[in-house]
Each structure stands twice: as C-alpha cells, then as structure tokens.
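Homework help board

Subject: predicted structure for assignment chain

Our instructor gave us this sequence and asked us to write out the predicted structure in token form, then describe one feature. I got the tokens but I'm not sure how to describe them. Can anyone check?
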Amino acid sequence: MHLKVRPVSLSALVVAALVVAVGSSFAQSGDPLHGTWKLDIAKSTFSPGPAPKATNLKYEPAGDRLRVIVDVENEKGKAHWEYTAGFDGKEQAVTGNPEVDLVSLKRIGPATTEASFKKSGKPTTTNTRVVSPDGKTLTITIKGTNAQGQAVHNVQVYDKQ
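My token output:
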C-alpha cells in the first residue's frame, strides 16, 4: 500500500494557524459580560427616577451558568441582591431584591443577553444587556413595570472596572 502525500500550500497553513489562534483567544477571553461594572450615572437615563447614587455589577462564571451580584446605593440606603442562572430560559430565584423574585436568561448574541424578571409570577421588567465591541462599556436597557405599577424605561451605562 502506497500513500500519496500532497503538498500543503503556505496559505492553507496560515489559515489553519489563524483559525487555531482566534479560537484559542476566544476561549480564553470568555464571555464579554464577565467582570465588574460601575454605573456611569451621567450617561444613564432613568424613567421614572430617581437615579441611584451608585450601582456596581459583578458577572462571573458559575460552571455553565452566570452568577450576578448587584450592589446599589439609593435614597433608601444600600442594597445587595444576586442570582445564578443559565442562558436556557429557565426561571431561577433572585435573593435580596424586594421587587423581583425570579429571573430567566437568554443569550441573544455573543455580546448581548436578556434577563426577564418576575415578582410573584407576574412579569416586571426585561433587561437587555449589550457589551460594546471594545469590551469597555455595558449598556442595559430596562423596560417593563416597577412595583408601583409605573412604566419603566431606563438606559444604564456601565464602565468595566
């Protein structure tokens, strides 16, 4: 049995090397949402208001799920709430937030996710989160209804820390 070996072109080798490099880079960089984010109040809008004094978000991997930690300071004081959920649309418990008790997540694209919140089984708000191409800015558009029954349309802009 004779094997015939065909020569491989240099361009084919370059393409193969680029595919491996890009794949490795993507695998190492992970989800662009991961990390700590600080609210830029001046670039954000809140309807209805008032705006919080400060908000910090932390997104971290938890196996194949996402752990979200929220620290807010507003006119009522400081609040801490969190949840861990997968991007499978299944509802998970939210702890520490009196306005919501369930969340479900969906991935819309590589840098876009959606979180849908409920309170006592009733939908409240949907948060669409988009990380900028450079990975330095997170914009969260929040639409729905708050606990007081008011329409909510907030655009929150965060800087990566």
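Reply (TA_rk): Your tokens look well-formed. For the description, you could write something like this. Confidence is low (pLDDT under 50) at residues 8-29. That's the kind of observation they're looking for.
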